[in-house]
Design brief:
By secondary structure, the chain is mainly α. It is built from 15 helices and no strands. 27% of the residues are buried.
Amino acid sequence: MVTDSTVVNPEEGPEEAIGPHEESDLTIMEHLIELRNRFMVAAAALLVGVIAVLFFTWDPPESLPNTFDILLDPARDRIDVNLGLVQDEFALLVHQQKPDGSVIPPETELRGPTPKGLALNDLQIMRALENALSKAAGGLSTPEVTPDEVRRLETVQDAYDYLRGKSDENFRLASFSPTDRISAIFKISIYGGLLLALPIIIYQALAFIVPGLTSGERRVLLMGTFGCMFFMLAGMAFAYYVVLPRALDFLLGVAAENVVNVTGIHEYISFVTRIILWVGIAYQLPMVLAIAARVGMVTAGQLMRFWRYAIVLVFILAAIATPTPDPLTQSVVAIPLLGLYFLGVLFAKILYTPRDGSEEPVEEATA
């Protein structure tokens, strides 16, 4: 009768002793077959994710969310069509802007005779509406103002209501080639599909690696993986709701009075996905520090003494994540990253484990 001669470390439970040897009897060919199978599962998950996002991006039913519209919302939100802008455009057109700063009342008729009306024709009204919409969009491509729609407008208030609905519902980007729209849609689908399939891909990778690790190493790896996913999603949400609107405000507002910026669909999607993904990756900082401390590579004391260099590195990361040269947008990204660095220091203090099993050095603990 064969007996198990495995020696159990008194500091480890039976699970730690058995874990690393579960797959020790597999041959190299069996390992390669397992790797192939797990790769095929991960590839299938990616394909399903891409198809799912493609369904919500190409032409989904109106009752379902449109991924393309979601990415366009930050640009839509910055189109500021306000009543004062419309009033100013009509005032400049008819030269009725008064020295005291008063403007044309909203109830003023567009075609009515002066002095109560503006006595404008359809072409003049269309020109004023196009100018107002162009200024409100700040360089973004705007839908065409059609003559049939202009004929139904009677007052300045009607013109304002028309432009507000026009910008909210029919905002579009420019396409410079027949393939721009398709390539942008597939880029969204690939990135979105990768994000949806990421848990399965990570699981398949861990399932292949984990049998060679101890149970303690497994727990660290799994906790670090879920933590990284959480911080990445938080970073992507921060980029979408905070960073993108400010970046668009700066980039599209520079010389907007003298330069008409036509934003292409391919360039816009690349710009948006780049910011979202890079900020999401930058938000992994606290988990990277926590894992490094858990395996004994760094200590909390070392990280605290490194804080001056950390500020420089954080601003470098912010500059990479935000392709805008203005310091305001970079600071919007850098300040939260700096807070995440000190959160990583706290994680390192809690999770630090010396490599040799000894206690943390005295100078590190008292730093």
